[in-house]
User: Fold these one by one.
Assistant:
Number 1:
Amino acid sequence: MKRLILAALLGSTIIASDLWASTAFISNEKDNTVSVLDLDQMKVTRTFKVGKRPRGIILSKDNKRLYICTSNDDTVEIYDSVNETKIGELPSGADPEQFALHPDDRKLYIANEDDALTTVVDVKTSQVLAQIDVGVEPEGMAVSHNGKIAITTSETTNMVHWIDTQSHELFDNTLVDQRPRYAVFEQDDSLLWVSSEIGGTVSVIDVKDRQIIKKINFAIKGIHKDRVQPVGMRLSHDGKYAYIALGPANHVAVVNRKTYEVEKYILVGRRVWHLEFSPDEKLLLTTNGVSGDVTLIDTQNLKAVKSIKVGRYPWGIAVKP
């Protein structure tokens, strides 16, 4: 009966059994907690305490460990993703916000906003492998799927910094619009998408020559352009859509990846920060900082189907199958 009810809620195109046992971890930066959201029951089942001001949150490749940037503690905490107990810490430099795990599941690339550094840490040994000078106020982090390139975006310098993951050296910079916050590679690593929060744009960059090939603008009827502030992004594996969180505009933009045109704006909660798919990509979850909830978007019908209260100022999301 429960599965039938869930299928009815999400529409006949979504099969409830596909979502069975999936868990979302939501970092709440004002509460110093993580909410655990059961995607089958569509509700928060428990909450656990973490360090101060948790933001970036990701899972290891085997989904056994949960890494959390506790920004005000200047550290990355490690939790067992099954029983949610703390099992360790990693050195990170000052004010870690976002990070990215190398495909080898060993090297963690951390943006240290206060130090203008990217710190590289071996998650097995807790050894700092490198500290790389980047621009002022680095935040966004990404690693290519082939593991050859790491990306840091610096909010004040307005640049994308390209790092060779073997030498740990900066080999190029790309100027983008004001306050770049997030970066994500296409599945084949041919393109990099970068959101610029204050610039109000998303730049699509050719990885081969590090040049911008397309700049995407947004316009929502009835919303002033200054409120359109792109932050988190997700690219669907089928190559069809880019989903872009538009901050205080309270919408997610759905962008056609072939034409780079916005096909739809989906209304979600207030101050949408970051996004993550369910394992089958039939749901897209959004963290809405000001309204303190998570919105679930049906990606087949491109509409919001439910909002779920979590903690205060939810920021990051990680989903475990």
Number 2:
Amino acid sequence: MPSTTDEAPDGLSAPRVTDHGGGVRSLRVPIPDNPLGHTLVYLLDTDRGPVLVDTGWDDPTSWETLTAGLAACGTSAAQIHGVVVTHHHPDHHGLSGRVREESGAWIAMHAADATVVRRTREAEPGLWLDYLAGKLERAGAPEAHIAPLRAARASGGGGGLPGLRPALPDREIVPGELLDLAGRRLRAVWTPGHTPGHVCLHLEEAHPAGRPGNGRLFSGDHLLPGITPHIGLYEDPDDAAVTDPLGDYLDSLERVGRLAPAEVLPAHQHVFTGAGDRVRELLAHHEQRLTGLLTLLAEPLTAWQVAERMEWNRPWDRIPYGSRNIAVSEAEAHLRRLVKLGRAEVAAGGDPARYVAV
């Protein structure tokens, strides 16, 4: 069974450190003001030194917790050999640059997410406010919801948005290939959907406790035990391509299910078994959601109107401002999927666009 500890040796508050056996440990790194609570950062022993899978949010408390957790594992940020990033979101990639400053570690990421990182770094912060305001306007959001973004833009705001200066990776994760980790067999599995360059990492080694299945899977946000990851539009102001993130995600789920790992090590919640069962649950969940949307689309609706009527974990009037933006993006991803499948279409003459079932 995995073993855990709740304090660093010096008595400072630290994440719970869990030893999963076979040179794999996890550290709980907090996410400030977020219901997810923490990111599970994994420490993987290699013959060239320890490697991190994700790093956590760029925040002083998160950094202190990460370093205390590393100390509890008998190492430090200065000894990290490399960082493997499952995807570019700030609760995963946020502290990668800080780790590299401490140790000179390399940072590896899939090329699609590295492109997003590069564009994010190069973009003027106000561009993101313009992008979000325009996106919400096209989705049919009321002016009262868009007004704070316009006001922030007019006042020169935008610099406080998270993740606007992420570290540039210096290695590319190539799907299907083994990562260059001495003494380990860690193969990259491209799983787009949550982001365009999300990767899972298949540890092709026998499970240390002898559990049946094909090794272990670091699943990032792709496969979680009790929640469904956010699948919205890929956010990139400089990319006008009409993508299908939900279609990407569903295809990726089936790919992961075929791996049949003995155990899944996700970035949130807890380690779990039964990957195939969880994949089937998620596929069924999204099919039910798509079917439910078709009922709503008996009349033409904007993406905002669809989001207002969809079932969330709380009533629409209790969903915070930022979470409403995320909900609208998720509604749009589902609408795009229905259009691609020929089950819905964009009604003629609408501005903003309205969708209707076919």
Number 3:
Amino acid sequence: MSSEGAKGVRVIQAGPLAMIEDGGRMGVRHLGVTQSGAADWVSLYWANWLLGNAPDTAALEIVVGGGLTLEIERATRLAWVGADLDARLDDAPITPGSSFTVREGQRLVFSQPRDGLRGYLAFPGGLAAPEVLGSRSTTPREQLGGLHGDGQPLKAGDRLAWRGEPGEERRIPAGLLPLMPRPGCRLALIPGAQIAEFTGASLYAAFNSVWQVDDRADRMGVRLRGPRLESRVGSMISEGIPLGAVQVPPDGQPIVLLNDRQTIGGYPRLGALSPLAAARLAQCLPGQEVRLVAVARERALADYRGFLRNF
């Protein structure tokens, strides 16, 4: 829905990329439609938890900040989790990982990233937007979802409305607050697909080298810079691509595919990052150093289930 006549939050200035995202558009990849959804789904889940929402409820994903300015038109309580984008409510700083009360007439401004890349602003009951193929997530490449259903980020003049009232006030338990990745952060990778086709020297380099996040990174994928990896597989028949898939094109530099990835691909793969590792990578700024760590599928699944038990 457009929400043009609804009282809630009005966009005064649009940042470079602020979009409505939820848990993603599942069960439609056979139609060629990508998953989409929050890139750092861990932070989305906690932001919604703070307000008593279902974990995958639609919220606002804000990348970089860049001066995004929202004017409050109706008092409520919001939650902010993820990157530190120097968020301020009438010049009072908002700490990531907390909920806070807003009053009519106040302005919420997001500036430049101090720590991390993406933050999630949750609203009581979730943001009102049309559901497209089972999700409200914004997917610009496919022109699906978002506030107006056309896959476009927020723009000045847009109005956001929410669909409920906040639950009782909560605090994220000590030790569970999502921390932004540090240089050399370890990303769990589940080996699979064509990993046996890579040379021994390449496999050693893949898991014993420091990789740098390239500036060619978006919601579709993140390119890593480092040693050149070589595979004995040339062209191959395209196959389905999961979240976190680590493809290696002919230049030997891995590309980790994220939420807005294509549904099929024909490059050899080392395997895939675990869902938790994919969320961590989504918070890495260009130039940040990361390491790939091979883990068993059972270990990654146990970690994933352990995280979900918090909800």
Number 4:
Amino acid sequence: MSPTAAPTSQGQDASPTGASSTALALVRAYAPGLGHGEGAVARVILERPEEIPYWSTLELATAAGTSPATVIRACKRLGFRGYQHLRIELARQDAPTEPEQGDRVANVFASAREALQLGERAVDREAVKRAAGLIAGASRVMFAANGFSAPPLQDAAMRFATSGRPVEAPLDILAQQFTAHTLGPGDVCLALSHSGANTHTLAAVRTAQHGGAAIIALCSYARAPIPELADVVISTGAVGQQHAVDPFFARINHSVALQALLESFSALEIPRRSGGMREVVAGALADAPN
């Protein structure tokens, strides 16, 4: 069997995103053609598929008795772009179908309440305190996020500024890299990512860490590439549909967790230049015409 093309017998589309195939069906199709180490990875995936979306590469490697490099290689030979792609496909396969009828407004608010309750239980209070302390003591603070995670972090950066803590929060991917390259010991990089595996955010984190900056990770998943590099991890838990293009309810939790971090920072008795912020806001509001 070719390791680069899944079988298409019985008219099935063997692509991971094909309408008639599933992630596990693809793994079963490829597994017989894998070597010893890669085959062990495939067996663990088939035996414990419900756990894989919550595992890091290292955790799957440990369960299979192999290395993270073998896990990534196995995932590619199984027809996925990498381990994170496999996690997403398995999460999507197990996600419940949304109800098509009912009060959609009530459903949205109910989902938001459930997400907040799960997030409240998931967030480690001591981790928030440690993160606030790092931010308070830092010479410079950089916020990094991309995609749907960027708006909550940009909002938080502005709110930190109103408390007297200047924050650098570049939006452009290259600007994030440039800023991360200038960080060093005594600086902090806070990265926000729902999956904890965004390629561009991960690159910024690795660059900042290489320079000696402390890393704070705020993610839905506690076990993912970005949290594995962090000095402090704030996990809000995986809520909503894990495969959704826009993890809206997860972002609600991220915004609330960032506000909790801001309030923990503000509670620290440190000198800060926050005066005059109301005047700034007042100056930005135009008077209504008579």
